[in-house]
Amino acid sequence: MSAPAPVAAMPGGLLDGQELALQARGLSLDYGSRRALDAVDLAVPCRRVTALIGPSGCGKSSLLRCFNRLNDEIADCRIVGDVRVFGADAYAAELSLPELRRRVGMVFQKPNPFPQSVSENVAFGLRLAGLRARLELEDRVEAALRAAGLWEEVRDRLGESALRLSAGQQQRLVIARALAVEPQVLLMDEPASMLDPISTLRFEELVVALRERYSVLLVTHNMQQAARVADYTAYMQAGRLLEFDTTDRIFTNPRLRGTEDYITGKLARDEE
Amino acid sequence: MASNASRPVQRRDLGLWLAAAAVSTSLLALAALLWVLLAQSWQAFAPAPVALLQWRDDAGEHSLLASVLAQDEQVLIVRGSEWQRRGDAYRRVLRSSLVHLSFPADALNLRLADGREILLRGSEQSWRGLDPQQRLVLPGADGEVPVRGADLVEVVAVNALSGWQRLGTGLQRALGFAGGTGGSGLFAALLGTVVLVMLMSVLVMPLGVLVALWLHEYAGNDQLARGLRAAIANLASVPSVIYGLFGLVLFVHGIGGSLDVLLSGTTAPVPHWGRGGLLWSALTLALLTLPVVVISVEEGLARVPPGLRQAALALGATRAEMLWRVVLPVARPALLTALILAVARAAGEVAPLMLVGAVKYAPALPLNGEFPYLHLSQQFMHLGHGVYDLALTGSDGPRDLAQAHATALLLLLVVIGLNASAIVVRNRLRERSRELSA
């Protein structure tokens, strides 16, 4: 492995004046003796889409899961550093984990609807939050499905099993499920990698629309996707966040050789 | 024949033949088991022809109306009317000693509600048309016996029966045996078995699921958890009678005895809780089946897709909410599999029950219309115990043995029935989850 990049990952003044949704400073993460993240600094601005790119195994998903603390579920996972969600320490002792996860929603690579009806899936988080009134539940479910661009397709199938939907619909359903609890941030872990091109297109339109109200951190392997939907892009390699800039700059004029090589597909596999 | 076949193919053929032989041996053994049970059960219920016997021996001349259970060229094995028997229900009679042998068409077999049989000659119609309130006196060897018309449950002119009628009578008797209450029927034992198994299921399932949840979701894989897992797996192979002994000491004497002292203040002269009973038996069986339940539930939990767990957590579910709302519902078929295994293991157990509550004769049903309806502290009858009891300690030799087989057949049917219903429920759940995953 080459020496760490000498330049700071983020050009000074880039995010000045912007409210930050997520922030990681000096974040290191170990799985047992294996270091997955090494002193990562990342800032995710509010109401923007930030893409996280980099070769497989570079720590993108691990970084993502620090923000909703899903890494806590892994027994031998150790985290050092500062993680903030809207300025508040995400690893504070008095913090309520369910509360944090309601504010920081997540969409996974593989569509993972529960084996329940479409509406039950969307209502899941609401019920957890203690919402019982039927009419309000129905309203919120509809609003979430509309926001995920799925309402027109499933309005007559709300009672049907979610597993009968197509993969693209399932992925939008789990987005609706995440949106229903009205999070402030959405973490997306390669959410379009299992979708066909048409569904991917719809998904990308959705992400662009979501940016009106949500801050999105999107892990993707699809360079075109990052270029199409993201305002900012961060490039990671081998557990380090090497470069962060506007998507435009990253794709047209990256400061690092490694970033350029990866984007243009020149990165050799063994450097992963 | 095998000239074209190469060696490996021949070897595979040998394996096939061995497998086929093994399968057919198993099937034959099963068929033989069923055949023995059926044939022996039939012996218990088939109406035997009634013969009029007269013979002479040192004590003088005898005359006897008796059912002929078996005969060959030299010997008849007969059972006299219950009235005429004194200790020896069965008698071997040498044909050579017989002065007279006939099968009178007017021989009647009367059966009383308590299971006793009376053989006599007369008109079927006049006995059938008896007023239930009418009192009559039947002649018996021990003197005259008062009987009411209502006590007569069966009047059959056995010698006049056609083949189908014999079958019908036998089946009717079998049904009466299975359904009858009191000393003559198995209903109490049937109910006792079913209630016991259900109570056991109600006790073991929550406990087993909780233990499995703890082991799989909370305990991790440290030394303690590994040791516990090994201990549980080993518990599954402890002989059941040891559980019975354990139940006797812990539940009956320990908890039951303390309860008696607690409730009555002193050690009651007649223990109420401090003796074998339904609850203690169910608890003992629950302990016995706990390892099976824990192991199969844990396997079911391991098969729940991790994506679903993460999705629930990411939506703000606590660990408990995730388990309760996502993991357990998805693992439901596995829970039923665990229940099926537990029922299969528990329904046929006899040895531990003999120590903690099953009895030959219980005066009341474990479940009846009297408050509190389910009588947890009562001793109860059990089909498996009935088999043991009839086969080994019965007073009426061959007939009891035949009835033991009938009881065994019923037990088999109960176990199959309980299992089948659980399997039906599981398959329905699976279908639903398949629909959901379609």
UniProtKB/TrEMBL annotation, chain A:
InterPro entries for this protein: AAA+_ATPase (IPR003593), ABC_transporter-like_ATP-bd (IPR003439), ABC_transporter-like_CS (IPR017871), P-loop_NTPase (IPR027417), PstB-like (IPR005670)
This protein's name: Phosphate ABC transporter ATP-binding protein (PhoT family)
Transport keyword on record: yes
Taxonomic source organism: Tahibacter aquaticus
A single GO molecular function term of this UniProt record: phosphate transmembrane transporter activity
Gene3D superfamilies from the UniProt entry: P-loop containing nucleotide triphosphate hydrolases (3.40.50.300)
Keywords: ATP-binding, Cell inner membrane, Cell membrane, Membrane, Nucleotide-binding, Phosphate transport, Translocase, Transport
ABC transporter domain location: 22-263
BP terms from Gene Ontology: phosphate ion transmembrane transport
Any one annotated GO CC term: membrane
Pfam families: ABC_tran
Automatic annotation (TrEMBL), chain B:
Domain of life: Bacteria
Keyword Cytoplasm annotated: no
Family assignment from sequence similarity: Belongs to the binding-protein-dependent transport system permease family. CysTW subfamily.
Main location: membrane
InterPro entries named in the record: MetI-like, MetI-like_sf, Phosphate_PstA
CDD domains noted in UniProt: TM_PBP2
Name of this protein: Phosphate transport system permease protein PstA
Species assigned in the record: Tahibacter aquaticus
